[in-house]
Model the fold of this input.
Amino acid sequence: MDIYLLLYLFLIAAPFSTIIHELGHLVGATIVKADQITLSIGTGKNAYTFSKDNIRISFQPSFLLTGLTKSERSKPYNSLEVAFITFCGPLFNILSFILFTGLHNFVHENSYFFLLMLLNGWIATVNMVPFKVNNKESDGYIIFKQLFKNE
Done:
């Protein structure tokens, strides 16, 4: 891997793929009519914040593979709605994987599309595996917990 591809991975592909994932959660929350949605990319002090209607998007300086989307609604979400919102993140990565696979194979074969394809596939796969580390739960863990909890 040359230095340009490595820089591309850390400075463009990883943050872009994280944004794709978090936008999936944002779209899912919008579909189930969330009252307030906050999408945050990175960690640290806010570098830039954008708000429109009930959506707030903020970017922090350390943006590598770190994102969070929170949504709230006056009427509490039921288990299927939480599972749906959660599933939309990996779904967007799966759709991006398909898009970048097509771009790589049929439009222009290059390492940059290939890296985006692999990264989005990896993010979708890892997020769908149910696991919990300390207090951090994967999307798969949240979906599993919501679908199989006793109400």
User: Anything to note?
Assistant: Residues 3-34+76-147 form one domain.
